[in-house]
Amino acid sequence: MNLLLRNALLLDVATGEYTEGDLRCADGRIAETGTGLRAPDGTRVLDVAGAHVVPGLIDAHVHVTASTADLGALRAMAPSYVTAHAARIMAGMLGRGFTTVRDNSGADHGLADAQAEGLIRGPRLLFCGKGLSQTGGHADFRGRGENLTDDHPCCAGVGRIADGVDAVRVAARDELRKGAHHIKVMASGGVASPTDRIDSTQYSMDELRAAVEEAEAANRYVAAHAYTARAVNRALEAGVRSIEHGNLIDDTSVELFLRHDAYLVPTLVTYWALKEEGRAFGLPEDSWRKVDEVLDAGLAALERAARGGARLAFGTDLLGGMHRHQSHEFRLRAEVQAPIDVLRAATSGAAELLGMSGEIGTLDAGAHADLLVLDGDPLMDAGVLADRKHLRHVVQAGAVV
Q1: What does the pLDDT read at residue 146?
Q2: Where is each Amidohydrolase-related domain found (predicted)?
Q3: Residues 256 and 176 grouped into a single domain
Q4: If residue 207 lies in a helix (H) or strand (E), which one and from where to where?
């Protein structure tokens, strides 16, 4: 698809500065930027009349199969039914300007291939398959009186149970075999799981290191669900590349992020949404009562990490009918960060985490032609990215979608 944008304010995310000019897309990539550009016959030309143009957004923590906040219920759903919901959820994400997402358990190669082939309308999908959990961990959704679990490959759940170093290696290798872009491990308790405590640590250091070793052997990395400083710090010491949530980190955590060149992916909006609407969208009562333990701490953790210079990426982690609040994350982060830093987390920062610097999250020549045309300046007000009325065009692979 060939496209030429004329008279745009083009954002350089690295410098935080706009340049007046044109941008030409060819064959799904950004071909060039400059002034007075000319395009081959058949190119679609859009005069955006001074609108702000920024890279397509990246959400580094989503669950596109999570049609309900009762994640345990997904195990019993037909994969075809879950796929239908995922297609709807992904289309909504693209409509909000997210042109790439990292799924942090639930999605698989089938959904990623369907999107890449144009069968599903949605963002580019980087997946981990099923998250790895110890027995009784954050991806073990059995109730206390339930003994059987279904780890069949066709099960639509978001996790698989693997206990012990050898089992963790097998599970990681199996997800990598199926094309996982990263491995997800549950390194602490969580809100949505029925039998663990948020302040627990999960997996031994040997098990965490085994997952990291297997991912690194395949030139991939590990993302770890973790809340408390104790859980976060263990995961960072084990070599995990990204910490998901991290609401209860301390100063030692920040030092470890810097030492290990790791990333924090806060997901503030999901706690806000779970508290407001979680029960209406299937979150069990016991899980809803856990939300307060992490709700208030998330913003303070983001501020601590940003002040300390930790690498940050944008994430939301929304479930069920709460996916519609995805862009509200921009408003929440702007309470403690400058708008350019909020935008960087959702563009260049997330691209670096995903190992796609120069490919996404930038308007540089050669990158995928994913970009947004905005009525409003997101560097003056991060809320511009949170309000659909400011989103004039979403361009994906050079096509206005």
Answers
A1: 78
A2: 53-400
A3: yes
A4: helix 205-217
- Same domain assignment for residues 299 and 240: yes
Which pLDDT score, from 0 to 100, does residue 222 have?
98
Whether residue 314 lies inside any domain: the answer is: yes
Query: Would you state the pLDDT for residue 157?
Result: 86
Location of structure tokens 């979608």: 401
384 and 282 within one domain: no
| Tokens read off for 323 | 């996916």
Domain of residue 140 covers 57-326
Counting Cβ atoms within 10 Å, is residue 163 exposed (0-12), middle (13-18) or buried (19+)?
A: middle
Q: Which of 326, 351, 384 is the last residue of a domain?
A: 326
Q: pLDDT tens digits, residue range 26-35?
A: 999 999 999 9
* Same domain assignment for residues 181 and 235: yes
Which uninterrupted H or E stretch holds 308? helix 297-308
Please give the helix or strand (H or E) that residue 102 lies within, else none. Answer: strand 98-103
Structure tokens at 263: 């990333």
What single-letter amino acid sits at 18?
Y
Question: 10 Å Cβ neighbour count for 204?
Answer: 16
- Residue partners of 153: CB distance under 8 A and separation at least 6: none
Ranges in the chain, pLDDT < 50: none
